Amino acid sequence: MRSLPLPLALTARLLPVAVLASAGWALTSGPLAATPTAAEDKSAQKPTDSTSAPSTSAATKTYAASPAPCDSVTEKTVKSLVPGAKTAGQEIASTDKSVRRTCSWNALKGFDYRWLDVSFEIKESDAAAETSYKERVADKSGGGAVPGVGDTGYSVVNLTTEDKQQTREGVVIVRASNALVVITYNGSDFESKKAPSADVINKGAISAAKDAVAALEKTQQS
Question: Which residues pair with 118 in a beta bridge?
């Protein structure tokens, strides 16, 4: 959760967010080139084992693009996590949708506020995604593993207080091959000034993550 007073944080988060040869050499033989020996000549005549030749084909990425983020979470999940929100969500402007796409849902029902972000990031390789995943987990220490989602998952929940108003935010980070799925889910009660329990926020973020990863996997099948 951003360290802003909640009314300002709510206003700020409702604003659109803008997000991201090879060289070779050749040998030629001239008039002064040495004459090959008989052994060399026989060796040169042997057929080349094609299986030993290095592959020139580029590695195929598991995921070339993210799913439509606002369709990645089921209506049932949205209604449960963000009561009163439009289930269609709002996609955040991105400089390159082939790299990153994000959708947000938010609503204030009575005095109870909820915000949900679902973000997909497509990396060039599994290794690049793994590096980014480890950096993000290290930056949000204090959480724990989330089993059974993607190749590896992590969740963390934090409580902040500004002007006696509590806000609790959960973040789930999942790596699935060369893709990252990042869920941010938070809530506040402006009447009691209390926040939802850590269990409510954590379970809500994980349920959204499971929906999002399932939507990502469908892009591979299509």
Answer: 103, 183
